[in-house]
Amino acid sequence: MRNKREHATRDLAGEVVDRWQFLVKLGALAITAPVIVSWGDEGSSGAGTGGAGGEDGEDGWRSDAIDPSIFERGARCNLTTTDIEAPSFLDDSQIPNDINLFRSDLRDGHPGCELRLYLRLLDGQNNGAPIPDAEVYIWHCDADGNYSGFDSQDSSTPYTRAIERAPENPERFCRGVQLTDRNGIVGFTSIWPGWYAGRPVHVHLVARINGPTTRLLTTQLYFDAELSRQVYTSEAAYRARSMDIPASSLNPPQGNPAMPKMAYTPGLVTGILDVVVGDHA
Protein backbone atom coordinates (compact mmCIF):
# COMPACT_ATOMS: atom_id res chain seq x y z
CA MET A 1 0.00 0.00 0.00
CA ARG A 2 2.73 2.44 0.91
CA ASN A 3 4.23 2.50 -2.57
CA LYS A 4 1.16 4.35 -3.89
CA ARG A 5 1.11 7.00 -1.21
CA GLU A 6 2.47 9.78 -3.39
CA HIS A 7 -0.72 9.76 -5.48
CA ALA A 8 -3.15 9.73 -2.57
CA THR A 9 -5.56 12.37 -1.33
CA ARG A 10 -6.28 12.29 2.36
CA ASP A 11 -9.86 13.54 2.78
CA LEU A 12 -10.52 13.34 6.51
CA ALA A 13 -14.13 12.96 7.62
CA GLY A 14 -13.90 16.32 9.36
CA GLU A 15 -12.44 18.18 12.30
CA VAL A 16 -13.83 17.23 15.69
CA VAL A 17 -14.36 20.47 17.54
CA ASP A 18 -15.99 19.44 20.80
CA ARG A 19 -14.98 17.11 23.59
CA TRP A 20 -16.25 13.52 23.55
CA GLN A 21 -18.01 13.65 26.93
CA PHE A 22 -20.07 16.65 25.90
CA LEU A 23 -20.87 15.21 22.48
CA VAL A 24 -22.06 11.88 23.87
CA LYS A 25 -24.77 13.83 25.68
CA LEU A 26 -25.81 15.28 22.33
CA GLY A 27 -25.78 11.83 20.78
CA ALA A 28 -23.22 12.47 18.04
CA LEU A 29 -19.97 14.21 17.25
CA ALA A 30 -20.05 17.72 15.84
CA ILE A 31 -18.23 17.78 12.52
CA THR A 32 -17.17 20.78 10.50
CA ALA A 33 -16.69 20.94 6.75
CA PRO A 34 -14.38 18.28 5.26
CA VAL A 35 -10.64 18.77 5.43
CA ILE A 36 -8.87 17.94 2.17
CA VAL A 37 -5.20 17.10 2.47
CA SER A 38 -2.84 16.06 -0.32
CA TRP A 39 0.59 14.47 -0.23
CA GLY A 40 3.51 15.89 -2.13
CA ASP A 41 6.52 13.94 -3.34
CA GLU A 42 8.59 12.06 -0.80
CA GLY A 43 10.80 14.45 1.10
CA SER A 44 9.20 17.58 -0.33
CA SER A 45 7.13 20.19 1.41
CA GLY A 46 4.21 19.30 -0.84
CA ALA A 47 0.93 21.14 -1.03
CA GLY A 48 -2.24 20.77 0.93
CA THR A 49 -5.13 22.52 2.58
CA GLY A 50 -6.05 21.68 6.10
CA GLY A 51 -7.98 22.64 9.17
CA ALA A 52 -7.00 25.09 11.85
CA GLY A 53 -3.83 24.25 13.69
CA GLY A 54 -2.44 21.86 11.09
CA GLU A 55 1.07 22.12 9.73
CA ASP A 56 2.83 20.46 6.83
CA GLY A 57 4.82 17.35 7.63
CA GLU A 58 8.12 16.38 6.04
CA ASP A 59 6.44 14.41 3.27
CA GLY A 60 3.86 17.06 2.46
CA TRP A 61 0.71 16.11 4.37
CA ARG A 62 -0.97 18.27 6.95
CA SER A 63 -1.42 16.74 10.39
CA ASP A 64 -3.65 17.37 13.39
CA ALA A 65 -6.96 17.73 11.55
CA ILE A 66 -8.72 15.86 14.36
CA ASP A 67 -8.82 17.38 17.84
CA PRO A 68 -6.92 14.94 20.13
CA SER A 69 -8.97 16.06 23.15
CA ILE A 70 -11.77 13.69 22.08
CA PHE A 71 -9.54 10.82 23.26
CA GLU A 72 -8.84 12.25 26.72
CA ARG A 73 -11.06 9.73 28.53
CA GLY A 74 -9.66 6.73 26.66
CA ALA A 75 -7.44 4.08 28.27
CA ARG A 76 -3.86 5.10 27.57
CA CYS A 77 -1.66 2.06 28.07
CA ASN A 78 -3.90 -0.99 28.21
CA LEU A 79 -2.68 -3.07 25.30
CA THR A 80 -5.30 -3.63 22.62
CA THR A 81 -6.27 -7.27 22.27
CA THR A 82 -4.93 -8.94 19.14
CA ASP A 83 -7.19 -10.96 16.87
CA ILE A 84 -6.98 -13.00 13.69
CA GLU A 85 -6.61 -11.31 10.32
CA ALA A 86 -9.33 -13.56 8.81
CA PRO A 87 -9.50 -14.50 5.12
CA SER A 88 -10.98 -11.19 3.93
CA PHE A 89 -7.71 -9.19 3.93
CA LEU A 90 -6.89 -7.66 0.56
CA ASP A 91 -3.74 -5.58 0.07
CA ASP A 92 -3.60 -3.44 -3.06
CA SER A 93 0.20 -3.72 -3.16
CA GLN A 94 -0.24 -7.40 -4.05
CA ILE A 95 -2.37 -6.61 -7.10
CA PRO A 96 -0.91 -4.73 -10.11
CA ASN A 97 -2.84 -1.61 -11.14
CA ASP A 98 -5.26 -1.87 -8.24
CA ILE A 99 -7.01 1.23 -6.92
CA ASN A 100 -5.33 3.30 -4.23
CA LEU A 101 -6.65 2.44 -0.79
CA PHE A 102 -5.15 5.55 0.85
CA ARG A 103 -8.43 7.33 1.55
CA SER A 104 -10.72 8.11 4.46
CA ASP A 105 -14.15 7.81 2.79
CA LEU A 106 -14.69 4.09 2.20
CA ARG A 107 -18.33 4.03 1.12
CA ASP A 108 -18.01 3.90 -2.68
CA GLY A 109 -21.70 4.69 -2.96
CA HIS A 110 -22.89 1.75 -0.86
CA PRO A 111 -26.06 2.35 1.19
CA GLY A 112 -25.92 2.18 4.96
CA CYS A 113 -25.88 4.17 8.16
CA GLU A 114 -22.87 6.49 8.15
CA LEU A 115 -20.04 5.35 10.41
CA ARG A 116 -17.35 7.77 11.53
CA LEU A 117 -14.48 6.01 13.24
CA TYR A 118 -11.64 7.86 14.99
CA LEU A 119 -8.61 5.87 16.12
CA ARG A 120 -5.45 6.89 17.99
CA LEU A 121 -2.39 4.65 17.73
CA LEU A 122 -0.31 4.62 20.93
CA ASP A 123 2.95 2.99 22.03
CA GLY A 124 2.31 0.85 25.08
CA GLN A 125 6.06 0.50 25.71
CA ASN A 126 6.59 4.25 25.82
CA ASN A 127 3.97 5.51 28.28
CA GLY A 128 1.26 5.65 25.61
CA ALA A 129 3.13 8.04 23.32
CA PRO A 130 1.47 8.62 19.94
CA ILE A 131 2.85 6.70 16.96
CA PRO A 132 2.94 9.03 13.94
CA ASP A 133 3.25 8.16 10.25
CA ALA A 134 1.95 4.60 10.64
CA GLU A 135 -0.50 2.95 8.28
CA VAL A 136 -3.88 2.03 9.74
CA TYR A 137 -5.90 -0.19 7.41
CA ILE A 138 -9.51 -1.05 8.20
CA TRP A 139 -11.97 -3.19 6.27
CA HIS A 140 -15.41 -4.65 6.90
CA CYS A 141 -18.48 -5.99 5.13
CA ASP A 142 -21.29 -3.90 3.64
CA ALA A 143 -24.89 -3.65 4.84
CA ASP A 144 -25.67 -7.07 3.30
CA GLY A 145 -22.77 -8.77 5.06
CA ASN A 146 -20.49 -9.07 2.01
CA TYR A 147 -16.83 -8.10 1.59
CA SER A 148 -15.46 -6.32 -1.45
CA GLY A 149 -13.03 -8.20 -3.70
CA PHE A 150 -14.27 -11.68 -2.82
CA ASP A 151 -16.70 -14.11 -4.45
CA SER A 152 -18.83 -17.03 -3.23
CA GLN A 153 -20.22 -15.25 -0.18
CA ASP A 154 -23.43 -16.20 1.62
CA SER A 155 -24.04 -14.03 4.65
CA SER A 156 -27.01 -16.11 5.81
CA THR A 157 -25.01 -19.22 6.72
CA PRO A 158 -21.73 -19.61 8.64
CA TYR A 159 -18.69 -20.01 6.42
CA THR A 160 -17.31 -23.54 6.46
CA ARG A 161 -14.40 -22.59 4.22
CA ALA A 162 -12.45 -19.48 3.30
CA ILE A 163 -14.28 -17.07 1.03
CA GLU A 164 -12.86 -16.99 -2.46
CA ARG A 165 -10.37 -14.20 -3.15
CA ALA A 166 -11.02 -12.58 -6.52
CA PRO A 167 -8.31 -9.97 -7.20
CA GLU A 168 -9.80 -9.33 -10.64
CA ASN A 169 -12.94 -8.04 -8.88
CA PRO A 170 -12.42 -4.23 -8.86
CA GLU A 171 -14.72 -3.50 -5.93
CA ARG A 172 -12.96 -2.14 -2.82
CA PHE A 173 -15.87 -0.72 -0.83
CA CYS A 174 -15.45 -0.53 2.95
CA ARG A 175 -11.65 -0.76 2.70
CA GLY A 176 -9.15 2.01 3.28
CA VAL A 177 -5.84 3.14 4.74
CA GLN A 178 -4.83 6.32 6.54
CA LEU A 179 -1.49 7.52 7.88
CA THR A 180 -1.51 8.56 11.51
CA ASP A 181 -0.83 12.24 12.14
CA ARG A 182 1.69 13.48 14.71
CA ASN A 183 -0.88 12.73 17.45
CA GLY A 184 -1.21 9.16 16.21
CA ILE A 185 -4.76 9.79 14.97
CA VAL A 186 -6.68 8.69 11.87
CA GLY A 187 -10.31 9.19 10.88
CA PHE A 188 -12.51 7.13 8.55
CA THR A 189 -15.99 7.56 7.11
CA SER A 190 -17.74 4.35 6.14
CA ILE A 191 -21.07 2.58 6.70
CA TRP A 192 -22.15 0.49 9.66
CA PRO A 193 -21.13 -3.12 8.88
CA GLY A 194 -23.92 -5.58 8.26
CA TRP A 195 -24.10 -8.94 9.98
CA TYR A 196 -23.28 -12.36 8.64
CA ALA A 197 -23.88 -15.71 10.28
CA GLY A 198 -21.28 -17.16 12.61
CA ARG A 199 -19.39 -13.96 13.55
CA PRO A 200 -20.18 -10.97 15.76
CA VAL A 201 -20.41 -7.61 13.99
CA HIS A 202 -16.84 -6.37 13.55
CA VAL A 203 -14.34 -4.16 11.73
CA HIS A 204 -10.88 -5.53 10.87
CA LEU A 205 -7.81 -3.43 11.66
CA VAL A 206 -4.13 -3.71 10.82
CA ALA A 207 -1.58 -1.14 12.02
CA ARG A 208 1.88 -1.21 10.45
CA ILE A 209 4.88 0.86 9.46
CA ASN A 210 6.99 0.66 6.31
CA GLY A 211 4.18 -1.01 4.40
CA PRO A 212 4.12 -4.79 4.85
CA THR A 213 7.56 -4.75 6.53
CA THR A 214 6.52 -4.21 10.16
CA ARG A 215 3.04 -5.04 11.40
CA LEU A 216 2.37 -3.47 14.80
CA LEU A 217 -1.06 -4.96 15.44
CA THR A 218 -3.71 -7.15 13.87
CA THR A 219 -7.10 -7.02 15.57
CA GLN A 220 -10.86 -6.69 15.13
CA LEU A 221 -13.16 -4.05 16.61
CA TYR A 222 -16.45 -5.21 18.13
CA PHE A 223 -19.62 -3.44 19.25
CA ASP A 224 -22.33 -3.68 21.87
CA ALA A 225 -25.10 -6.04 20.75
CA GLU A 226 -27.92 -3.64 21.60
CA LEU A 227 -26.31 -0.86 19.56
CA SER A 228 -26.05 -3.15 16.54
CA ARG A 229 -29.65 -4.29 16.96
CA GLN A 230 -30.82 -0.69 17.18
CA VAL A 231 -29.04 0.28 13.96
CA TYR A 232 -30.31 -2.78 12.10
CA THR A 233 -33.94 -2.24 13.08
CA SER A 234 -33.90 1.54 12.63
CA GLU A 235 -31.93 2.11 9.42
CA ALA A 236 -33.47 1.35 6.02
CA ALA A 237 -30.42 -0.37 4.50
CA TYR A 238 -30.49 -3.09 7.19
CA ARG A 239 -34.17 -3.43 8.07
CA ALA A 240 -34.96 -6.25 5.64
CA ARG A 241 -32.32 -8.43 7.33
CA SER A 242 -33.05 -7.32 10.89
CA MET A 243 -35.51 -10.07 11.84
CA ASP A 244 -34.19 -13.05 13.79
CA ILE A 245 -30.52 -12.10 13.71
CA PRO A 246 -28.65 -14.92 15.50
CA ALA A 247 -27.13 -13.98 18.85
CA SER A 248 -23.72 -15.12 17.59
CA SER A 249 -23.87 -12.32 15.02
CA LEU A 250 -24.57 -9.66 17.65
CA ASN A 251 -22.82 -10.48 20.91
CA PRO A 252 -19.15 -9.49 21.06
CA PRO A 253 -16.70 -12.27 21.96
CA GLN A 254 -15.77 -13.12 25.54
CA GLY A 255 -12.61 -11.80 27.13
CA ASN A 256 -11.33 -8.30 26.48
CA PRO A 257 -12.16 -7.51 22.84
CA ALA A 258 -11.32 -4.14 21.32
CA MET A 259 -14.54 -2.13 21.58
CA PRO A 260 -14.66 1.56 20.59
CA LYS A 261 -16.69 4.05 22.59
CA MET A 262 -19.83 4.52 20.49
CA ALA A 263 -22.62 7.07 19.99
CA TYR A 264 -25.65 6.69 17.72
CA THR A 265 -28.22 9.10 16.35
CA PRO A 266 -30.42 8.31 13.33
CA GLY A 267 -28.22 8.16 10.25
CA LEU A 268 -24.90 8.38 12.08
CA VAL A 269 -22.79 6.11 14.29
CA THR A 270 -19.57 7.51 15.77
CA GLY A 271 -16.79 5.49 17.41
CA ILE A 272 -13.57 6.46 19.19
CA LEU A 273 -10.82 4.12 20.34
CA ASP A 274 -7.24 4.23 21.59
CA VAL A 275 -5.34 1.43 19.84
CA VAL A 276 -2.37 0.57 22.06
CA VAL A 277 0.41 -1.63 20.68
CA GLY A 278 3.20 -3.27 22.62
CA ASP A 279 5.94 -3.98 20.09
CA HIS A 280 6.69 -0.57 18.61
CA ALA A 281 10.43 0.02 18.30
Give an overview in words:
- The chain is mainly beta and about 280 residues long.
- It contains 3 helices and 13 strands, in the order βαββββββββββααββ.
- It has helices at about 20-25, 225-235, 235-240, and strands at about 10, 35-40, 115-125, 130, 135-140, 150, 165, 175-180, 185-190, 200-210, 215-220, 260-265, 270-275.
- Strands 3, 4, 9, 12 and 13 form a 5-stranded mixed sheet that branches. Strands 8-5-10-11 form a 4-stranded antiparallel sheet, with no helix packed on it. A two-stranded antiparallel sheet has the order 1-2.
- It is globular, with a radius of gyration of 18 Å.
- The two termini are about 20 Å apart.
Report helical residue fraction.
Answer: under 10%
Radius of gyration: 18 Å
Q: Are there runs of 5+ residues with pLDDT below 50, and where?
A: 6-63
Counting DSSP H or I runs of 4 or more residues, the number of helices is 3
Beta strand count: 13
Strand content: 25-35%
- Helix-strand category: mainly beta
How would a textbook summarize the main sheet? 5 strands, mixed
Task: Fill in the keyword field for this structure.
single chain; 281 residues; mainly beta; 5-stranded mixed β-sheet; 4-stranded antiparallel β-sheet; 3 helices; 13 strands; 7% helix; globular
Topology diagram in text:
Elements (H helix, E strand, L loop, with lengths): L8 E4 L7 H7 L8 E4 L75 E10 L5 E2 L4 E5 L10 E2 L12 E2 L9 E5 L5 E7 L10 E8 L4 E9 L2 H10 L1 H4 L21 E5 L2 E10 L4
Parallel strand pairs: 3-13
Antiparallel strand pairs: 1-2, 3-4, 3-9, 5-8, 5-10, 6-7, 10-11, 12-13
